[in-house]
Amino acid sequence: MRSLQLFTFFILAILSGCSIINEQADLPNLSDTQWKLMAIEQNPVNLGDNATLKFDEKENKISGIAACNNFNAGYEMIRTAITFDNVITTKKYCEGKMDEENKIITNLQSVTRYDVKANMLYFYSKERLVLTYKR
User: Fold this and answer.
1) In CATH, what number is assigned to the domain containing residue 71?
2) Over the stretch 62-76, which tens digit does the pLDDT of each residue have?
3) What SS3 state is found at 47?
4) Which domain holds residue 43?
5) How far apart are CA 13 and CA 102, in angstroms?
């Protein structure tokens, strides 16, 4: 009886592991794309190539432009949970862009999860949509 229980447990453990692997395989590839910022806290922005984001999944790093300055950071991702750490930026001043830049960096540091639908990347801080990017 004990060996049947162990065998059942072993099979269930293997099947659970396969399920997790399949969930990871179903997640979209975020790298190999330059994402352009479309909205901050659901307010549309038109910064063009001056607000971008790119993932390096091999190094677990992101880089981009936050309205004025370049930035980069490390990230950790488990399924759709994501956090960014050690966000660093260059220190230029750009007239009329610093408020948007501060919002981008502040919101990026608060991100807890993401979602991708079609060509759109949505970052959430808990349940609040904070940044929207387009492929």
Assistant:
1) 2.40.128.270
2) 999 999 999 999 999
3) coil
4) 29-134
5) 46
SS3 for 60?
coil
CB 80 within 8 A of CB 114: yes
Three-state DSSP state, 37: strand
Residue 124 included in any domain: yes
Spatial CA neighbour of 110 closest among 92, 78, 132, 85 = 85
For residues 106, 109, 110 and 113, what is the CA-based torsion angle, rounded to 10 degrees?
130
Cβ neighbours of residue 42 closer than 8 Å, sequence gap 6 or more? 129, 132
Coil, strand or helix at 122: strand
Enter the tokens of residue 53: 């984001």
d(CA 36, CA 65): 9
DSSP E strand boundaries for 8-80: 34-40, 43-44, 51-56, 61-66, 69-78
pLDDT digits (tens, 9 = 90+) for 89-124: 999 999 999 999 999 999 999 999 999 999 999 999
